[in-house]
Amino acid sequence: MSIQAKLTDAVKEAFKAQYDVRIENVEFQATRKEFDGDITIVVFAFLRHVKGNPIKIGEDLGTYLKENVSEVTDFNVVKGFLNLVISESHYLDTFNTINAIANYGTVTPDPDQKADMVEYSSPNTNKPLHLGHIRNNLLGYSVAEIMAASGKKVFKTQIINDRGIHICKSMLAWKLFGNGETPESTGLKGDKLVGNYYVAFDKAYKAEIKVLMEAGKTEDEAKKQAPLLLEAQAMLLKWEAGDEEVVTLWKTMNQWVYDGFEVTYKELGVDFDKNYYESETYLLGKDIVADGLKKGIFFKKEDNSVWIDLTADGLDEKIVLRGDGTAVYMTQDIGTAIERFKDFDLNELVYTVGNEQDYHFKVLFLILKKLGFEWSENMYHLSYGMVDLPSGKMKSREGTVVDADDLMIEMTNTARTISQDLGKLEGYSEEEKEALYKVIGLGALKYYILKVDPKRRIMFNPEESVDFNGNTGPFIQYTYARIQSILRKATFDYTATITGINLHAKEIHLIKELEQFPGVIQNAAANHSPALIANYTYDLVKAYNSFYQTVPILGCENLEEKIFRTQLSAKIAATIKSGFKLLGIAVPERM
Protein backbone atom coordinates (compact mmCIF):
# COMPACT_ATOMS: atom_id res chain seq x y z
CA MET A 1 0.00 0.00 0.00
CA SER A 2 1.34 3.45 -0.90
CA ILE A 3 2.04 6.01 1.81
CA GLN A 4 -0.79 8.21 0.52
CA ALA A 5 -3.25 5.31 0.75
CA LYS A 6 -2.09 4.54 4.32
CA LEU A 7 -2.36 8.19 5.31
CA THR A 8 -5.81 8.50 3.72
CA ASP A 9 -7.11 5.57 5.77
CA ALA A 10 -5.50 6.95 8.94
CA VAL A 11 -6.93 10.47 8.38
CA LYS A 12 -10.42 9.00 7.98
CA GLU A 13 -9.97 7.03 11.20
CA ALA A 14 -8.69 10.16 12.99
CA PHE A 15 -11.71 12.27 12.05
CA LYS A 16 -14.05 9.44 13.00
CA ALA A 17 -12.34 9.02 16.39
CA GLN A 18 -11.79 12.70 17.19
CA TYR A 19 -14.84 14.39 15.67
CA ASP A 20 -17.21 11.55 14.76
CA VAL A 21 -17.10 12.84 11.17
CA ARG A 22 -16.78 10.85 7.95
CA ILE A 23 -14.15 12.22 5.52
CA GLU A 24 -14.37 11.16 1.87
CA ASN A 25 -11.21 12.65 0.34
CA VAL A 26 -7.79 13.75 1.54
CA GLU A 27 -5.86 16.34 -0.48
CA PHE A 28 -2.08 15.82 -0.61
CA GLN A 29 0.70 17.94 -2.08
CA ALA A 30 4.49 17.99 -1.98
CA THR A 31 5.88 19.88 0.99
CA ARG A 32 7.27 23.27 0.02
CA LYS A 33 11.05 23.46 0.11
CA GLU A 34 11.16 26.07 2.87
CA PHE A 35 9.37 23.77 5.34
CA ASP A 36 10.39 20.50 6.98
CA GLY A 37 8.49 17.50 5.72
CA ASP A 38 7.99 15.08 2.84
CA ILE A 39 4.26 15.18 2.20
CA THR A 40 1.64 17.78 3.07
CA ILE A 41 -2.05 17.38 3.91
CA VAL A 42 -4.27 20.35 3.10
CA VAL A 43 -6.21 20.98 6.34
CA PHE A 44 -8.34 23.77 4.85
CA ALA A 45 -10.21 21.14 2.84
CA PHE A 46 -11.59 19.62 6.09
CA LEU A 47 -13.21 22.85 7.33
CA ARG A 48 -16.43 22.06 5.48
CA HIS A 49 -16.72 18.97 7.70
CA VAL A 50 -15.31 20.29 11.00
CA LYS A 51 -15.61 23.83 12.32
CA GLY A 52 -12.61 25.18 14.18
CA ASN A 53 -9.12 26.61 13.97
CA PRO A 54 -7.25 24.92 11.06
CA ILE A 55 -3.96 25.07 13.01
CA LYS A 56 -5.56 23.22 15.98
CA ILE A 57 -7.16 20.67 13.64
CA GLY A 58 -3.76 20.17 11.97
CA GLU A 59 -2.01 19.69 15.34
CA ASP A 60 -4.58 17.11 16.47
CA LEU A 61 -4.38 15.27 13.15
CA GLY A 62 -0.56 15.34 13.15
CA THR A 63 -0.42 13.91 16.67
CA TYR A 64 -2.81 11.10 15.70
CA LEU A 65 -0.85 10.21 12.58
CA LYS A 66 2.50 10.21 14.42
CA GLU A 67 1.07 7.83 17.01
CA ASN A 68 -0.75 5.52 14.59
CA VAL A 69 1.23 5.47 11.34
CA SER A 70 4.70 4.01 11.78
CA GLU A 71 6.10 5.84 8.73
CA VAL A 72 5.27 9.29 10.21
CA THR A 73 8.17 10.34 12.44
CA ASP A 74 7.34 14.03 12.94
CA PHE A 75 5.08 16.84 11.76
CA ASN A 76 4.61 20.60 11.72
CA VAL A 77 1.66 22.83 10.91
CA VAL A 78 1.94 25.98 8.82
CA LYS A 79 -1.39 27.80 8.69
CA GLY A 80 -3.79 25.29 7.14
CA PHE A 81 -1.13 22.83 5.96
CA LEU A 82 0.04 19.74 7.86
CA ASN A 83 3.60 18.84 6.84
CA LEU A 84 4.53 15.22 7.63
CA VAL A 85 8.06 13.86 7.98
CA ILE A 86 8.25 10.30 6.64
CA SER A 87 10.82 7.78 7.88
CA GLU A 88 13.87 6.90 5.80
CA SER A 89 13.00 3.22 6.15
CA HIS A 90 9.73 3.85 4.29
CA TYR A 91 11.61 5.31 1.32
CA LEU A 92 14.09 2.46 1.32
CA ASP A 93 11.25 -0.08 1.39
CA THR A 94 9.45 1.88 -1.33
CA PHE A 95 12.50 1.83 -3.57
CA ASN A 96 13.03 -1.90 -3.08
CA THR A 97 9.39 -2.49 -4.06
CA ILE A 98 9.72 -0.26 -7.14
CA ASN A 99 13.05 -1.81 -8.12
CA ALA A 100 11.54 -5.29 -8.19
CA ILE A 101 8.91 -4.28 -10.79
CA ALA A 102 10.20 -4.83 -14.33
CA ASN A 103 7.72 -2.59 -16.18
CA TYR A 104 7.32 -0.13 -13.35
CA GLY A 105 4.56 2.44 -13.86
CA THR A 106 2.67 0.62 -16.61
CA VAL A 107 -0.47 -1.49 -16.31
CA THR A 108 -1.06 -4.56 -18.47
CA PRO A 109 -4.35 -4.11 -20.36
CA ASP A 110 -7.20 -6.53 -19.73
CA PRO A 111 -7.77 -8.19 -23.14
CA ASP A 112 -11.50 -8.56 -22.40
CA GLN A 113 -12.13 -4.86 -21.82
CA LYS A 114 -13.66 -2.55 -24.43
CA ALA A 115 -11.11 -0.92 -26.69
CA ASP A 116 -10.19 2.72 -27.18
CA MET A 117 -9.22 4.10 -30.59
CA VAL A 118 -6.91 6.98 -31.44
CA GLU A 119 -7.08 8.47 -34.94
CA TYR A 120 -4.15 10.53 -36.18
CA SER A 121 -2.25 11.53 -39.33
CA SER A 122 -5.16 11.21 -41.83
CA PRO A 123 -3.28 12.78 -44.76
CA ASN A 124 -4.34 13.67 -48.31
CA THR A 125 -2.86 11.60 -51.14
CA ASN A 126 -1.90 14.62 -53.23
CA LYS A 127 1.21 15.69 -51.32
CA PRO A 128 3.88 14.53 -48.83
CA LEU A 129 3.52 14.76 -45.06
CA HIS A 130 4.61 18.13 -43.67
CA LEU A 131 5.51 19.77 -40.35
CA GLY A 132 1.86 19.95 -39.25
CA HIS A 133 1.52 16.21 -39.86
CA ILE A 134 4.59 15.64 -37.68
CA ARG A 135 2.93 17.24 -34.65
CA ASN A 136 -0.28 15.35 -35.41
CA ASN A 137 1.49 11.98 -35.72
CA LEU A 138 3.67 12.48 -32.66
CA LEU A 139 0.70 13.52 -30.52
CA GLY A 140 -1.62 10.75 -31.70
CA TYR A 141 0.98 8.00 -31.46
CA SER A 142 2.17 9.12 -28.01
CA VAL A 143 -1.36 9.45 -26.62
CA ALA A 144 -2.15 5.93 -27.86
CA GLU A 145 1.03 4.56 -26.22
CA ILE A 146 0.28 6.36 -22.94
CA MET A 147 -3.31 5.11 -22.89
CA ALA A 148 -2.04 1.55 -23.48
CA ALA A 149 0.51 1.96 -20.65
CA SER A 150 -2.31 3.10 -18.34
CA GLY A 151 -4.05 -0.26 -18.83
CA LYS A 152 -6.32 0.39 -21.80
CA LYS A 153 -6.67 -1.73 -24.94
CA VAL A 154 -5.89 0.71 -27.76
CA PHE A 155 -6.17 0.68 -31.54
CA LYS A 156 -4.32 3.24 -33.68
CA THR A 157 -5.96 4.29 -36.92
CA GLN A 158 -6.02 6.87 -39.67
CA ILE A 159 -8.50 7.83 -42.39
CA ILE A 160 -6.71 8.58 -45.64
CA ASN A 161 -8.25 11.31 -47.75
CA ASP A 162 -7.77 9.61 -51.11
CA ARG A 163 -10.58 11.17 -53.19
CA GLY A 164 -11.84 14.61 -54.19
CA ILE A 165 -10.97 17.48 -56.49
CA HIS A 166 -7.55 18.03 -54.88
CA ILE A 167 -6.55 14.45 -55.76
CA CYS A 168 -7.74 14.94 -59.34
CA LYS A 169 -5.61 18.10 -59.65
CA SER A 170 -2.41 16.08 -59.10
CA MET A 171 -3.65 13.33 -61.42
CA LEU A 172 -4.54 15.75 -64.22
CA ALA A 173 -1.22 17.63 -63.94
CA TRP A 174 0.71 14.34 -64.17
CA LYS A 175 -1.37 13.27 -67.16
CA LEU A 176 -0.73 16.61 -68.95
CA PHE A 177 2.87 17.34 -67.95
CA GLY A 178 4.32 14.10 -66.58
CA ASN A 179 5.60 12.39 -69.72
CA GLY A 180 5.00 9.05 -68.00
CA GLU A 181 7.57 9.61 -65.23
CA THR A 182 7.40 7.43 -62.10
CA PRO A 183 9.08 7.30 -58.69
CA GLU A 184 11.45 4.69 -60.16
CA SER A 185 12.36 6.73 -63.23
CA THR A 186 12.91 9.95 -61.22
CA GLY A 187 14.37 8.52 -58.01
CA LEU A 188 11.80 10.54 -56.03
CA LYS A 189 9.62 9.21 -53.24
CA GLY A 190 6.14 8.71 -54.64
CA ASP A 191 4.47 11.22 -52.32
CA LYS A 192 6.99 13.89 -53.34
CA LEU A 193 6.50 13.19 -57.05
CA VAL A 194 2.71 13.48 -56.73
CA GLY A 195 3.09 16.60 -54.58
CA ASN A 196 5.17 18.21 -57.32
CA TYR A 197 2.26 17.79 -59.72
CA TYR A 198 -0.15 19.35 -57.21
CA VAL A 199 2.13 22.41 -57.25
CA ALA A 200 2.39 22.22 -61.07
CA PHE A 201 -1.40 22.26 -61.37
CA ASP A 202 -1.67 25.37 -59.21
CA LYS A 203 1.00 27.16 -61.25
CA ALA A 204 -0.72 26.34 -64.57
CA TYR A 205 -4.16 27.14 -63.11
CA LYS A 206 -3.01 30.60 -61.99
CA ALA A 207 -1.56 31.25 -65.46
CA GLU A 208 -4.95 30.42 -67.00
CA ILE A 209 -6.73 32.72 -64.55
CA LYS A 210 -4.38 35.55 -65.53
CA VAL A 211 -5.12 35.04 -69.27
CA LEU A 212 -8.89 35.00 -68.65
CA MET A 213 -8.74 38.16 -66.53
CA GLU A 214 -6.71 39.91 -69.24
CA ALA A 215 -9.53 38.93 -71.63
CA GLY A 216 -12.04 40.77 -69.45
CA LYS A 217 -13.25 38.15 -66.98
CA THR A 218 -13.56 39.00 -63.29
CA GLU A 219 -11.24 37.12 -60.94
CA ASP A 220 -14.15 35.03 -59.63
CA GLU A 221 -15.31 34.21 -63.18
CA ALA A 222 -11.77 33.36 -64.24
CA LYS A 223 -11.27 30.99 -61.30
CA LYS A 224 -14.49 29.12 -62.11
CA GLN A 225 -14.01 29.02 -65.90
CA ALA A 226 -10.32 28.11 -66.11
CA PRO A 227 -10.05 25.06 -68.43
CA LEU A 228 -7.76 23.15 -66.05
CA LEU A 229 -10.25 23.36 -63.19
CA LEU A 230 -13.13 22.32 -65.45
CA GLU A 231 -11.07 19.35 -66.64
CA ALA A 232 -10.23 18.35 -63.05
CA GLN A 233 -13.93 18.54 -62.13
CA ALA A 234 -14.77 16.36 -65.13
CA MET A 235 -12.11 13.86 -64.00
CA LEU A 236 -13.71 13.68 -60.54
CA LEU A 237 -17.10 12.91 -62.10
CA LYS A 238 -15.49 10.18 -64.20
CA TRP A 239 -13.86 8.72 -61.07
CA GLU A 240 -17.20 8.68 -59.25
CA ALA A 241 -18.75 6.98 -62.31
CA GLY A 242 -16.05 4.29 -62.22
CA ASP A 243 -14.28 5.26 -65.46
CA GLU A 244 -11.64 2.56 -65.93
CA GLU A 245 -8.83 4.84 -67.17
CA VAL A 246 -9.31 7.40 -64.39
CA VAL A 247 -9.66 4.76 -61.67
CA THR A 248 -6.48 3.00 -62.86
CA LEU A 249 -4.52 6.26 -62.79
CA TRP A 250 -5.99 7.04 -59.35
CA LYS A 251 -4.93 3.65 -57.98
CA THR A 252 -1.44 3.96 -59.48
CA MET A 253 -0.71 7.45 -58.15
CA ASN A 254 -2.26 6.73 -54.74
CA GLN A 255 -0.02 3.68 -54.39
CA TRP A 256 3.01 5.87 -55.10
CA VAL A 257 1.92 8.08 -52.26
CA TYR A 258 1.21 5.19 -49.85
CA ASP A 259 4.69 3.80 -50.50
CA GLY A 260 6.16 7.23 -49.75
CA PHE A 261 4.08 7.66 -46.59
CA GLU A 262 5.25 4.27 -45.33
CA VAL A 263 8.89 5.39 -45.51
CA THR A 264 8.09 8.60 -43.61
CA TYR A 265 6.05 6.80 -40.93
CA LYS A 266 8.86 4.28 -40.40
CA GLU A 267 11.43 7.07 -40.07
CA LEU A 268 9.18 8.95 -37.67
CA GLY A 269 8.55 5.79 -35.65
CA VAL A 270 4.74 5.67 -35.81
CA ASP A 271 2.37 2.93 -36.93
CA PHE A 272 -1.31 2.07 -37.32
CA ASP A 273 -3.48 -0.96 -36.60
CA LYS A 274 -6.05 -0.13 -39.27
CA ASN A 275 -6.39 2.29 -42.17
CA TYR A 276 -9.72 3.70 -43.32
CA TYR A 277 -10.00 5.24 -46.79
CA GLU A 278 -12.31 8.10 -47.68
CA SER A 279 -12.98 6.44 -51.05
CA GLU A 280 -14.60 3.60 -49.09
CA THR A 281 -16.33 5.70 -46.42
CA TYR A 282 -17.59 8.83 -48.21
CA LEU A 283 -21.06 7.35 -48.69
CA LEU A 284 -21.36 6.26 -45.05
CA GLY A 285 -23.82 8.28 -43.02
CA LYS A 286 -26.38 8.94 -45.77
CA ASP A 287 -28.71 6.25 -44.39
CA ILE A 288 -28.30 7.70 -40.89
CA VAL A 289 -29.26 11.14 -42.21
CA ALA A 290 -32.35 9.67 -43.89
CA ASP A 291 -33.34 7.98 -40.63
CA GLY A 292 -32.74 11.19 -38.65
CA LEU A 293 -34.87 13.09 -41.15
CA LYS A 294 -37.79 10.72 -40.48
CA LYS A 295 -37.38 11.22 -36.73
CA GLY A 296 -37.38 15.01 -37.05
CA ILE A 297 -33.76 15.41 -35.92
CA PHE A 298 -32.87 16.88 -39.33
CA PHE A 299 -34.93 19.08 -41.65
CA LYS A 300 -34.99 19.84 -45.37
CA LYS A 301 -34.62 23.23 -47.01
CA GLU A 302 -36.22 24.31 -50.28
CA ASP A 303 -33.24 23.15 -52.34
CA ASN A 304 -33.62 19.63 -50.81
CA SER A 305 -30.44 20.01 -48.71
CA VAL A 306 -30.69 18.45 -45.24
CA TRP A 307 -29.74 20.41 -42.10
CA ILE A 308 -29.79 20.24 -38.32
CA ASP A 309 -30.70 23.23 -36.17
CA LEU A 310 -28.31 23.50 -33.20
CA THR A 311 -29.09 27.12 -32.27
CA ALA A 312 -30.78 26.03 -29.04
CA ASP A 313 -27.43 24.43 -28.08
CA GLY A 314 -25.50 27.66 -28.69
CA LEU A 315 -24.28 26.59 -32.13
CA ASP A 316 -25.87 27.21 -35.56
CA GLU A 317 -27.55 25.37 -38.40
CA LYS A 318 -25.33 22.74 -40.01
CA ILE A 319 -25.73 21.05 -43.39
CA VAL A 320 -25.49 17.24 -43.35
CA LEU A 321 -26.47 16.46 -46.96
CA ARG A 322 -26.37 18.61 -50.13
CA GLY A 323 -29.46 19.30 -52.21
CA ASP A 324 -28.23 16.93 -54.95
CA GLY A 325 -27.96 14.13 -52.40
CA THR A 326 -24.16 14.13 -52.15
CA ALA A 327 -22.45 13.86 -48.78
CA VAL A 328 -20.47 16.53 -46.94
CA TYR A 329 -17.63 15.80 -44.50
CA MET A 330 -20.08 15.80 -41.59
CA THR A 331 -22.15 13.05 -43.26
CA GLN A 332 -19.06 10.90 -43.65
CA ASP A 333 -17.81 11.55 -40.12
CA ILE A 334 -21.18 10.53 -38.67
CA GLY A 335 -21.13 7.28 -40.65
CA THR A 336 -17.45 6.54 -39.97
CA ALA A 337 -17.85 7.03 -36.22
CA ILE A 338 -20.77 4.60 -36.14
CA GLU A 339 -18.79 2.12 -38.25
CA ARG A 340 -15.80 2.25 -35.90
CA PHE A 341 -17.82 1.70 -32.74
CA LYS A 342 -19.39 -1.32 -34.47
CA ASP A 343 -16.07 -2.66 -35.84
CA PHE A 344 -14.17 -2.48 -32.55
CA ASP A 345 -16.86 -2.31 -29.82
CA LEU A 346 -15.17 0.89 -28.66
CA ASN A 347 -15.26 2.61 -25.30
CA GLU A 348 -13.57 5.86 -26.39
CA LEU A 349 -12.67 7.40 -29.76
CA VAL A 350 -9.99 10.11 -29.85
CA TYR A 351 -9.58 12.33 -32.91
CA THR A 352 -6.17 14.00 -33.27
CA VAL A 353 -7.02 17.02 -35.42
CA GLY A 354 -5.85 20.66 -35.44
CA ASN A 355 -7.76 23.32 -33.53
CA GLU A 356 -9.16 24.85 -36.73
CA GLN A 357 -11.64 21.94 -36.57
CA ASP A 358 -12.80 22.58 -32.98
CA TYR A 359 -16.26 23.66 -34.10
CA HIS A 360 -16.65 20.71 -36.48
CA PHE A 361 -16.13 18.20 -33.68
CA LYS A 362 -18.47 20.02 -31.29
CA VAL A 363 -21.14 19.69 -33.95
CA LEU A 364 -20.29 16.06 -34.77
CA PHE A 365 -20.45 14.92 -31.15
CA LEU A 366 -23.69 16.79 -30.55
CA ILE A 367 -25.37 15.34 -33.68
CA LEU A 368 -24.42 11.81 -32.64
CA LYS A 369 -25.83 12.47 -29.17
CA LYS A 370 -29.11 13.72 -30.66
CA LEU A 371 -29.22 10.61 -32.86
CA GLY A 372 -29.28 8.58 -29.66
CA PHE A 373 -25.77 7.12 -29.59
CA GLU A 374 -24.82 7.02 -25.89
CA TRP A 375 -21.15 6.43 -26.76
CA SER A 376 -21.02 9.97 -28.19
CA GLU A 377 -20.17 11.05 -24.63
CA ASN A 378 -16.93 9.05 -25.01
CA MET A 379 -15.64 10.88 -28.08
CA TYR A 380 -12.75 13.27 -27.60
CA HIS A 381 -11.17 15.84 -29.91
CA LEU A 382 -7.42 16.00 -29.20
CA SER A 383 -7.13 19.55 -30.46
CA TYR A 384 -3.70 21.02 -31.06
CA GLY A 385 -2.20 24.31 -32.17
CA MET A 386 -0.24 24.98 -35.34
CA VAL A 387 3.52 24.59 -35.65
CA ASP A 388 5.36 27.62 -37.03
CA LEU A 389 8.94 28.03 -38.12
CA PRO A 390 10.93 31.27 -37.96
CA SER A 391 10.60 31.38 -41.78
CA GLY A 392 6.80 31.71 -41.59
CA LYS A 393 3.63 29.88 -42.62
CA MET A 394 3.38 26.99 -45.08
CA LYS A 395 1.28 26.68 -48.25
CA SER A 396 1.28 23.24 -49.86
CA ARG A 397 -0.18 24.23 -53.23
CA GLU A 398 2.60 26.79 -53.68
CA GLY A 399 5.32 24.33 -52.74
CA THR A 400 6.43 26.22 -49.62
CA VAL A 401 5.55 23.46 -47.17
CA VAL A 402 8.14 22.26 -44.67
CA ASP A 403 8.39 18.65 -45.83
CA ALA A 404 8.42 16.07 -43.00
CA ASP A 405 11.26 14.03 -44.56
CA ASP A 406 13.35 17.14 -45.15
CA LEU A 407 12.81 18.31 -41.57
CA MET A 408 13.92 14.95 -40.15
CA ILE A 409 17.06 15.09 -42.31
CA GLU A 410 17.69 18.65 -41.14
CA MET A 411 17.34 17.54 -37.50
CA THR A 412 19.94 14.81 -38.05
CA ASN A 413 22.27 17.32 -39.70
CA THR A 414 21.78 19.80 -36.85
CA ALA A 415 22.56 17.07 -34.31
CA ARG A 416 25.69 16.17 -36.29
CA THR A 417 26.96 19.77 -36.31
CA ILE A 418 26.33 20.40 -32.61
CA SER A 419 27.74 17.01 -31.52
CA GLN A 420 30.90 17.58 -33.56
CA ASP A 421 31.31 21.06 -32.08
CA LEU A 422 31.02 19.61 -28.57
CA GLY A 423 33.49 16.83 -29.38
CA LYS A 424 31.56 14.20 -27.43
CA LEU A 425 31.96 11.25 -29.80
CA GLU A 426 35.61 10.21 -29.67
CA GLY A 427 36.14 6.54 -30.45
CA TYR A 428 32.92 6.13 -32.44
CA SER A 429 32.91 4.64 -35.93
CA GLU A 430 31.30 6.75 -38.67
CA GLU A 431 28.37 4.32 -38.81
CA GLU A 432 27.84 4.60 -35.04
CA LYS A 433 28.02 8.37 -35.25
CA GLU A 434 25.41 8.58 -38.01
CA ALA A 435 23.02 6.31 -36.09
CA LEU A 436 23.48 8.44 -32.99
CA TYR A 437 22.95 11.73 -34.87
CA LYS A 438 19.60 10.38 -36.04
CA VAL A 439 18.59 9.30 -32.52
CA ILE A 440 19.58 12.71 -31.12
CA GLY A 441 17.98 14.70 -33.95
CA LEU A 442 14.67 12.87 -33.90
CA GLY A 443 14.67 12.87 -30.09
CA ALA A 444 15.15 16.63 -30.13
CA LEU A 445 12.31 17.13 -32.62
CA LYS A 446 9.86 14.85 -30.81
CA TYR A 447 10.59 16.14 -27.33
CA TYR A 448 10.41 19.81 -28.38
CA ILE A 449 6.95 19.24 -29.81
CA LEU A 450 5.58 16.89 -27.16
CA LYS A 451 6.74 18.80 -24.06
CA VAL A 452 4.29 21.58 -24.95
CA ASP A 453 0.62 21.36 -24.01
CA PRO A 454 -1.15 20.19 -27.20
CA LYS A 455 -3.47 23.19 -27.31
CA ARG A 456 -0.61 25.68 -27.51
CA ARG A 457 0.80 26.92 -30.79
CA ILE A 458 4.52 26.15 -31.23
CA MET A 459 7.34 28.14 -32.78
CA PHE A 460 9.75 25.35 -33.65
CA ASN A 461 13.45 26.21 -33.73
CA PRO A 462 15.63 23.24 -34.84
CA GLU A 463 18.87 24.63 -33.37
CA GLU A 464 17.22 25.40 -30.03
CA SER A 465 15.77 21.89 -29.80
CA VAL A 466 19.18 20.20 -30.23
CA ASP A 467 20.69 21.61 -27.05
CA PHE A 468 22.51 19.44 -24.54
CA ASN A 469 21.39 21.70 -21.69
CA GLY A 470 17.95 22.63 -20.44
CA ASN A 471 14.53 21.10 -21.07
CA THR A 472 15.43 19.28 -24.29
CA GLY A 473 15.49 15.74 -25.63
CA PRO A 474 19.29 15.58 -26.01
CA PHE A 475 19.80 16.71 -22.39
CA ILE A 476 17.63 13.84 -21.16
CA GLN A 477 19.24 11.37 -23.58
CA TYR A 478 22.68 12.45 -22.38
CA THR A 479 21.73 11.80 -18.74
CA TYR A 480 20.47 8.32 -19.68
CA ALA A 481 23.75 7.59 -21.51
CA ARG A 482 25.73 8.89 -18.52
CA ILE A 483 23.96 6.40 -16.24
CA GLN A 484 24.69 3.57 -18.69
CA SER A 485 28.36 4.54 -18.49
CA ILE A 486 28.19 4.28 -14.68
CA LEU A 487 26.60 0.84 -14.91
CA ARG A 488 29.25 -0.38 -17.37
CA LYS A 489 31.98 0.73 -14.95
CA ALA A 490 30.39 -1.06 -11.99
CA THR A 491 32.67 -4.08 -11.39
CA PHE A 492 30.55 -5.46 -8.54
CA ASP A 493 27.20 -7.23 -8.24
CA TYR A 494 24.56 -4.59 -7.50
CA THR A 495 21.48 -6.81 -7.54
CA ALA A 496 21.21 -7.50 -3.78
CA THR A 497 18.34 -5.88 -1.86
CA ILE A 498 19.72 -3.28 0.54
CA THR A 499 18.09 -2.49 3.90
CA GLY A 500 19.11 -0.60 7.01
CA ILE A 501 21.25 2.16 5.45
CA ASN A 502 20.88 5.88 6.01
CA LEU A 503 19.62 7.74 2.96
CA HIS A 504 20.93 11.03 1.64
CA ALA A 505 18.32 13.77 1.14
CA LYS A 506 19.01 13.64 -2.61
CA GLU A 507 18.25 9.91 -2.64
CA ILE A 508 14.96 10.45 -0.84
CA HIS A 509 14.05 13.14 -3.36
CA LEU A 510 14.76 10.76 -6.25
CA ILE A 511 12.64 8.00 -4.68
CA LYS A 512 9.79 10.50 -4.27
CA GLU A 513 10.10 11.33 -7.97
CA LEU A 514 10.05 7.63 -8.89
CA GLU A 515 6.93 7.11 -6.75
CA GLN A 516 5.06 9.58 -8.94
CA PHE A 517 5.61 7.78 -12.25
CA PRO A 518 2.55 5.46 -12.23
CA GLY A 519 0.29 8.39 -11.30
CA VAL A 520 1.80 10.57 -14.03
CA ILE A 521 1.01 7.90 -16.64
CA GLN A 522 -2.59 7.64 -15.44
CA ASN A 523 -2.95 11.42 -15.40
CA ALA A 524 -1.41 11.81 -18.86
CA ALA A 525 -3.77 9.15 -20.23
CA ALA A 526 -6.83 10.77 -18.65
CA ASN A 527 -5.84 14.18 -20.02
CA HIS A 528 -4.53 12.93 -23.40
CA SER A 529 -1.33 14.89 -22.72
CA PRO A 530 2.18 13.63 -23.57
CA ALA A 531 3.46 16.93 -22.11
CA LEU A 532 2.88 15.51 -18.61
CA ILE A 533 5.19 12.56 -19.37
CA ALA A 534 7.79 14.80 -21.04
CA ASN A 535 8.01 17.28 -18.19
CA TYR A 536 7.96 14.56 -15.52
CA THR A 537 10.94 12.93 -17.24
CA TYR A 538 12.77 16.25 -17.32
CA ASP A 539 12.12 16.79 -13.58
CA LEU A 540 13.41 13.28 -12.87
CA VAL A 541 16.57 13.97 -14.88
CA LYS A 542 17.15 17.29 -13.11
CA ALA A 543 16.83 15.55 -9.75
CA TYR A 544 19.24 12.82 -10.83
CA ASN A 545 21.85 15.28 -12.07
CA SER A 546 21.68 17.11 -8.75
CA PHE A 547 22.20 13.77 -6.97
CA TYR A 548 25.06 12.82 -9.36
CA GLN A 549 26.90 16.09 -8.72
CA THR A 550 26.49 15.87 -4.92
CA VAL A 551 26.64 12.23 -3.89
CA PRO A 552 29.47 9.78 -4.77
CA ILE A 553 28.23 6.64 -6.52
CA LEU A 554 31.01 4.29 -7.64
CA GLY A 555 33.45 6.19 -5.44
CA CYS A 556 31.41 5.53 -2.31
CA GLU A 557 33.47 3.66 0.34
CA ASN A 558 30.52 1.88 1.98
CA LEU A 559 29.71 -1.14 -0.22
CA GLU A 560 25.99 -1.27 0.68
CA GLU A 561 25.56 2.43 -0.08
CA LYS A 562 27.48 1.99 -3.34
CA ILE A 563 25.22 -0.93 -4.34
CA PHE A 564 22.09 1.03 -3.45
CA ARG A 565 23.17 4.15 -5.37
CA THR A 566 24.01 2.05 -8.43
CA GLN A 567 20.60 0.35 -8.19
CA LEU A 568 18.92 3.74 -7.85
CA SER A 569 20.80 5.03 -10.90
CA ALA A 570 19.76 1.97 -12.92
CA LYS A 571 16.08 2.41 -11.97
CA ILE A 572 16.19 6.10 -12.86
CA ALA A 573 17.61 5.15 -16.27
CA ALA A 574 14.92 2.51 -16.79
CA THR A 575 12.22 5.07 -15.93
CA ILE A 576 13.72 7.63 -18.32
CA LYS A 577 13.68 4.97 -21.03
CA SER A 578 10.07 4.04 -20.23
CA GLY A 579 8.96 7.68 -20.24
CA PHE A 580 10.70 8.39 -23.53
CA LYS A 581 9.27 5.21 -25.07
CA LEU A 582 5.79 6.60 -24.39
CA LEU A 583 6.85 9.68 -26.37
CA GLY A 584 8.23 7.54 -29.20
CA ILE A 585 11.80 8.65 -28.42
CA ALA A 586 14.82 6.33 -28.39
CA VAL A 587 17.63 6.61 -25.84
CA PRO A 588 21.29 5.91 -26.73
CA GLU A 589 23.44 3.58 -24.63
CA ARG A 590 26.49 5.78 -25.32
CA MET A 591 26.70 9.44 -26.15
Oligomeric assembly: single chain
Number of helices: 21
Biggest β-sheet: strands ordered side by side in the sheet: 7-6-5-11-12
Calculate the mean pLDDT score and round it.
93
Question: Over the alpha carbons, how many angstroms does the gyration radius reach?
Answer: 29 Å
Question: Strand percentage, roughly?
Answer: 5-15%
CATH class of the domain at 116-281 and 353-398: Alpha Beta
The CATH architecture designation of the domain at 116-281 and 353-398 is 3-Layer(aba) Sandwich
What is the percent of helical residues? 40-55%
Task: Report the CATH superfamily of the domain at 116-281 and 353-398.
Answer: HUPs
CATH topology of the domain at 116-281 and 353-398: Rossmann fold
Principal-axis shape equals: globular
The count of DSSP E runs of length 2 or more, i.e. the number of strands, is 14
Structural class: alpha/beta
Terminal residue distance: 39 Å
Poorly predicted sequence stretches spanning 5 or more consecutive residues: 393-399
**Main pleated-sheet profile:** 5 strands, parallel
Describe the structure.
- The protein has helices at 3-19, 54-68, 88-99, 131-149, 165-177, 183-186, 190-214, 219-225, 227-240, 244-268, 278-281, 286-294, 329-344, 358-370, 404-422, 430-450, 462-465, 473-489, 505-527, 530-550, 559-582, and strands spanning 28-30, 39-42, 72-78, 81-86, 115-119, 153-160, 274-277, 299-300, 306-309, 317-321, 346-354, 379-384, 387-388, 458-459.
- Helix content is 54%, strand content 11%.
- Among the domains are: 3-86, Arginyl tRNA synthetase N-terminal domain (Gyrase A, domain 2, 2-Layer Sandwich), CATH 3.30.1360.70; 116-281 and 353-398, Rossmann fold, CATH 3.40.50.
- The protein is an alpha/beta fold and 591 residues long.
- It starts with a helix and ends in a 9-residue tail after the last helix.
- The strands form 4 sheets. Strands 7-6-5-11-12 form a 5-stranded parallel β-sheet, sandwiched between helices.
